[in-house]
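Hi P.,

Sorry for the delay on this. The queue was packed all week, but I finally got your sequence through. Input first:
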Amino acid sequence: MSANNRLERDAANVKQADVTRLLSRWPKLEQMVRDNKRLQPFIEDVNLAYQLLGDYSSRRYREIPWRSIAAIVAALLYVLNPLDMLPDMIPMFGLVDDASVLALCWSMVRKDLDQYRAFLEQHPPG
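Then the structure:
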């Protein structure tokens, strides 16, 4: 299954409870991204996505389509999933797989992340 198909399938199944679950697992996800050289280029977007999901959950920011929220959640949960398509235990291949899913997701939601970034400039977190 391609990364695109996997992301679309997983995003279609995301529920609000998955947003909450992902937010609760944030320290583990952030550490995984920081410790993985292939994922490190995504740290800024991952941190922005975390802040976006928190603001979405608290209803501070709702100017984003659910499909974008679902894609972000699906991609980040995929990175956390130890049984993804190419397990991380296989050197290089599992890591490339996670990175490709994140890259695909960010390309899909770039406009929404940029709009959220602009929102933050006008409405800094309190």
